[in-house]
Amino acid sequence: MELREVIGRRRSIRFLRPYMPVEPEKIQMMFEAARIATHWGNVQSLRAVAIHRHTAPQEVLDALKAVVVGWQLRIAPVVIVWYCDPEQVEEQGNRLRQLMDVGALGFGPEDVKRSTLEEKFIPAFKEIKDFLKAPGLNEIDCGQGMAQATLMAYELGLGSCFLGTPDGDAILKVLGVPSHCRLLLMQCVGYPMEHWEAGGQRPRQPFESLFWMNTYGNPYPRSQAVVDELTRDKMFTRPAPLPERAAELEYLERALKLKAPGLF
Length: 264
Ligand SMILES: Cc1cc2nc3c(=O)[nH]c(=O)nc-3n(C[C@H](O)[C@H](O)[C@H](O)COP(=O)(O)O)c2cc1C
Description:
The protein has 264 residues and is α+β, with helices and mostly antiparallel strands. The chain has eleven helices and four strands; from the N terminus they run H-H-E-H-H-E-H-H-H-H-E-H-E-H-H. It has one domain (3-201, 237-255): NADH Oxidase. Helices cover 41% and strands 11% of the residues. Helix 2 (24-35) packs across helix 8 (137-155). Flavin mononucleotide (FMN) binds at residues 11-12, 66, 68-69, 161-164, 185, 202. Flavin mononucleotide binds next to strand 3.
């Protein structure tokens, strides 16, 4: 399947087959995709614990809590707890040296360039270390890794849905993750029970209200030919709500005995 179609089919899938474990190799593939994602200065602060419902200790399963639509955590065969380790910023100097050695900074490690790196770049980064460890840049790059993992999951026939939580510290504590780390998101992963369309392409803000050319307020031109091409390539799919969605939801809720799934 072409990348455009995968992007178009990636959708939050809340209804997963609770009885069907996910092969560790597939979660590994998600992690492999996350590991090679881009990260500022190659710091790589993204970390994760994959919790397999069928083998994890009950105490760990009980610790997983979300504020909104949290019932997904009780049926998902795997919950990936993605977190950020901001202390990786301490390794920034070494990561930059590595990048220079392999020519990824746009220049090689000749003497003069090496001393510029050692005397200018690395000290400059050290000076703003606290800013770099604060929530911000690292989280953005962690998100890029998680996005790649999500596309990989789709490609492997898996469904997934991210869940936020205000109980991040407590969850990481039960998992034994060092206390300086920050929980980013939980991601339920499993084989989908719902159709891949999951009710259709979810509504999005108009293109014209999001992107600008040259200056703010000057809408980025949206060519209809491009829209048509992406529609042909299946990146754009039927918009929600699909006529069969209400019946699908009713069926899924009955199958999973979600008496009152509501928001919790
Ligand atoms: C950062 C992030 C946090 C999210 N948190 C939750 C959550 O706590 N509970 C939930 O049910 N869905 C959560 N979602 C899923 C979104 O609600 C979902 O992306 C949205 O409904 C649009 O659907 P789509 O992803 O299929 O386009 C989250 C998604 C993201 C990206």
